[in-house]
Amino acid sequence: MSKIPEFTKSVFNLKDLPTDGTTEIAFIGRSNVGKSSLINALASRKQLARTSGKPGKTQSLNYYLFPDKYYIVDTPGYGYAARSKKDRDVWRGIMDEYVSGRDELTAIGILIDARHEGLENDITALEWLVGQGKPWFVILTKIDKVKQKDISAHEKYLKAEFSGGELLFGVSVVSGIGVKRLSSYLRSLVAKK
Ligand SMILES: Nc1nc2c(ncn2[C@@H]2O[C@H](COP(=O)(O)OP(=O)(O)OP(=O)(O)O)[C@@H](O)[C@H]2O)c(=O)[nH]1
Ligand SMILES: [Mg+2]
Prior knowledge:
Elements: E1 6-11, E2 24-29, H1 35-43, E3 61-66, E4 70-74, H2 85-101, E5 105-113, H3 120-130, E6 136-141, H4 148-161, E7 166-170, H5 179-192
The structure holds guanosine-5'-triphosphate (GTP) and magnesium ion.
């Protein structure tokens, strides 16, 4: 097996999910929140996952195999305003089926832009997540753009409003803050399995 993280496959149809039984952790979050960028930072590879300044770049479930033997699954972003309602319903349908039926899925990380507290789309996603009954955790992204006191306030808000989730991680792929800590946490989740 490769010692460096590798792209494995893109899944457009749930019948094509990997069948090798490897544990997986999915990242969900609004379009443009930084999911693909974070996967690159965790992998220390700039171009592993494709990123874009324009929202809506990732359109499938993308599997990345990490050397500690787990997949990180990049997912299409939600809340992309230019998308039709039908598209949003498709997201919901795919994610419901994927999350409820996937035994390999150990935990879900929801990425939230540290700058934007309480966005409607994030609230909807957090409520959905709480209802899934899978372990989940929050990652606040782009913390290079905010002050520590705003991060603390955002964390306090999330803890007060949404129960059952794990620790909150603040990350920035620009400064690199929080990436190592998150990486250790992901490994600990897989080790528990
Ligand atoms: N300042 C700053 N910008 C970031 C950070 N992480 C991501 N970005 C920028 O945010 C934009 C979107 O990043 P992506 O990683 O493509 O976002 P995504 O969540 O994968 O988006 P979709 O695939 O559309 O769902 C890019 O322009 C990134 O450079 C960060 O930590 N700090
Ligand atoms: Mg993406």
